[in-house]
């Protein structure tokens, strides 16, 4: 070596001399699906100036580690696919804790720190997280343009989200133009407070879900009126609820077949028309829901708002 790693003195007049070898068993990637190891003999050195010892280094393995760099890269490569840590550990010949440690270390190196900038268009939602979180649901938000995850918050409660977004400067929060969410009411009050210039967009999936839920509740209320007075009709409303939620333009009107609870052959559209004929209020609700869904499907905002107002 050119110098001592401990004191930094230059190696002149044999001030640093060899001092034997140190052997280590290094885990390397599997060979022919069998665990493979490298017995690595590392040269030891002695510095006469500071009376210290140090060991030669290699790019095969980092200092004070017994798992090769190639094995660590193999773990990360397998972690890019959807599989368990136990499966990765078994295929690489290491322990589960090693796989977890390698993944966490890599995640820290590439972690995106979200406390400086915000995208102009944001998506917000919640999801069922791990058991260690304080709340049942965790909060996630993404860039609506690139669809990349910005950050995940352990709790979706309003006060937690306010504290989180308060870390961003007001100048950055003013740059947010749109925020797309579901119909979770605390999100709406949060957006108005922390993003003063942002418009709220309700994603169409939850709009259709709300329409279907309202129509389904109307169907259940009507169905219960026939529970004792007309049991066969009650059973028809209960059995064919999926047809009532199907868009009317998608129902088949030509393919007749034998259906349960009906004596004659029917088409899906014929079943729906039969069920709508018993109550004018339910029929009107069905027509309104279909008009709203049709306008939403074809991006006709004018007809959608007109139908709502009427």
Features:
single chain; 310 residues; alpha/beta; Nucleotidyltransferase, domain 5; 4 domains; 3-stranded antiparallel β-sheet; 20% strand; elongated
Task: Give the helix/strand layout.
Layout: E1 16-31, E2 34-47, E3 52-55, H1 69-79, H2 85-92, H3 96-110, E4 121-128, E5 137-143, E6 149-153, H4 158-165, H5 170-174, E7 178-181, H6 185-194, E8 199-202, H7 204-225, H8 231-239, H9 241-245, H10 268-276, H11 280-297, H12 301-309
Parallel strand pairs: 4-7, 7-8
Antiparallel strand pairs: 1-2, 2-3, 4-5, 5-6
SSE succession: EEEHHHEEEHHEHEHHHHHH
Q: How would you state the average pLDDT, rounded?
A: 90
Quick one: overall form?
elongated
Rg estimate, integer Å? 33 Å
Helix content: 40-55%
Q: Hey, roughly how much beta strand do the residues contain?
A: 15-25%
Structural class of the secondary elements?
alpha/beta
Alpha-carbon distance between the two ends: 87 Å
Count of the separate structural domains: 4
Explain this structure:
This protein has 310 residues and is α/β, with parallel strands linked by helices. The protein folds into four domains: 1-64, no CATH class; 67-111; 121-202, Nucleotidyltransferase, domain 5; 206-309, no CATH class. The chain has helices at 69-79, 85-92, 96-110, 158-165, 170-174, 185-194, 204-225, 231-239, 241-245, 268-276, 280-297, 301-309, and strands at residues 16-31, 34-47, 52-55, 121-128, 137-143, 149-153, 178-181, 199-202. A five-stranded mixed sheet has the order 6-5-4-7-8. A three-stranded antiparallel sheet has the order 1-2-3. α2 crosses α3. The longest helix is centred in the C-terminal third of the chain and has 22 residues, at 204-225. 15% of the residues are buried.
